[in-house]
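Q: Given only this backbone (345 positions), what sequence would you predict?
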């Protein structure tokens, strides 16, 4: 509810010439949260127990709600009065739930069946959406809006390529390099920290340059970072890993705000909410597929075993193979990003 509406509100409130900078600041806020969350959560857990994390969210959320009600005036519901697609929403929720569960257990028969059922419901959802007058997601937009279609496709490939990075490196740093969970977490903070630092600059650039060019460059930089991670071995220095994370974070920073700006600039104001929600959903699907690729690689090289020194070699083979696949996906995403065409005429 937050991610689907906050971007739409920002896009509705600010003029097109300032949209890139605003979206960059918004993305920076997200990444600052990603950096602060683990560290603050660790402090709370150490001194007050893990339940304090959930209690701390209550006053924070209440404060934010108060500020929104106090300071945010106006309404941007340009589609107000249209009917709500309840049947489509139910089909959509079932499909995503089944696919999410299926891809999280893809190496088992249960996971394959769940993913297949989710895919079936997704197909039923698509057929239903094409029949009704006010769909929850107007699929026709993908047939006539090239920029929006390829912006979503670029999002899919980008999240497929990058989401599993933290998961894989967390295992590598703890098992192969022998780091504690805290120290491994501190190293992994480098990527979102770089994203937070460079997203405002990247967003500002998209107000003055063609977004697809900078977003595609960001995808290319991310591909290079992933390729460097495909060379990891037992003797790889931590400096090398930190540099790779810096490259991946820099590439993602220059991709995210430009891609979002290009997507929202290509649709009518009336469907900003649907457009931002679609981008968020495609990103989540990309995250699922990223973990699916990872699980398949581990199942192929390691099988269902616990990571112990005996299995370090097949673990590294799984790790490197996964990073190669992720690099290829990110490389394909460059062309999806370029194929969207010019947003500014």
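A: Predicted residues:
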């Amino acid at each position: 509810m937050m991610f689907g509406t906050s971007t739409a509100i920002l896009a509705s409130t600010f003029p097109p010439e300032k949209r890139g900078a605003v979206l960059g600041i918004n993305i920076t806020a997200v990444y600052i949260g990603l950096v602060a969350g683990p560290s603050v959560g660790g402090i709370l857990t150490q001194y007050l127990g893990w339940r304090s994390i959930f209690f701390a969210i209550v006053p924070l959320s209440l404060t934010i709600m108060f500020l929104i009600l106090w300071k945010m005036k106006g309404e941007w519901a340009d589609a107000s009065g249209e009917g709500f697609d309840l049947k489509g929403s139910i089909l959509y929720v079932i499909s995503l739930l089944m696919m999410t569960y299926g891809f999280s257990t893809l190496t088992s028969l249960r996971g394959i069946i769940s993913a297949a059922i989710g895919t079936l419901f997704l197909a039923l959802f698509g057929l239903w959406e094409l029949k009704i007058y006010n769909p929850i997601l107007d699929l026709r937009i993908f047939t006539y809006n090239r920029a929006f279609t390829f912006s979503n496709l670029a999002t899919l490939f980008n999240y497929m390529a990058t989401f599993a990075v933290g998961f894989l490196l967390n295992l590598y740093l703890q098992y192969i390099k022998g780091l504690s969970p805290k120290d491994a977490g501190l190293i992994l903070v480098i990527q979102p920290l770089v994203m937070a630092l460079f997203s405002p600059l990247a967003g500002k650039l998209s107000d003055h340059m063609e977004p697809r060019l900078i977003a595609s460059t960001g995808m290319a930089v991310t591909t290079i970072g992933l390729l460097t991670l495909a060379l990891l071995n037992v003797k790889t220095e931590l400096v090398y890993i930190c540099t790779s994370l810096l490259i991946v974070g820099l590439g993602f920073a220059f991709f995210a705000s430009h891609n979002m700006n290009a997507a929202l600039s290509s649709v009518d104001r009336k469907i900003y909410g649907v457009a931002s929600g679609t981008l968020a959903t495609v990103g989540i699907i990309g995250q699922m597929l990223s973990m699916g690729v990872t699980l398949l690689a581990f199942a192929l090289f390691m099988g269902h075993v616990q990571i112990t020194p005996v299995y370090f070699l097949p673990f590294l083979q799984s790790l490197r193979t996964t990073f190669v696949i992720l690099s290829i996906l990110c490389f394909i995403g460059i062309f999806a990003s370029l194929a969207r065409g010019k947003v500014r005429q």
